[in-house]
User: What shape does this take?
Amino acid sequence: MRMPHLRVRSPRPAALLAAGAVVIALGTLGTLGASVATPADFATAPTVTQADVVEAYNDGWIDGRADLMGDDNRDGYVDEGESGWDCATMGNRQCGPGVSAQCKGETEYADLCATVAGRPAYAWTEADGTPHALAAGRKLLARLDVAPGTEEFAAALFALDTLWAQHNED
Assistant: This one.
């Protein structure tokens, strides 16, 4: 049987010699470095338990994972305002302050106002066949006759939010 001929370059003698010299040099340095320690060094070294090693590993893993995610407070979640937050793909996908003109002056329920203002127009049909349609949230808020920051405005916000939930949430 004929042996196949492989088209591989044979190593050059200079490359083999250089690699051998590097291995010998590193081995010598490793041996000399280990022999410099004295028994007194080991007597004064702190005792490291397995629990210490595990704790250090876990702390390093959690810190590294949090840094990678952008979880600044290291609670396991990337919250709005942390370095890993991407407003275009996370949360309500609204970048910036997000306060509509209709919500200016509302302080106590500003989040609810922004939620209602950001809702699209929707429609529904009652059981008896009566159709209903509501405009987008900003238009609904603009039609209110009460000023933001008042109890009447808060009541209207809750009414609009409840109406949305009744017809859009399963």
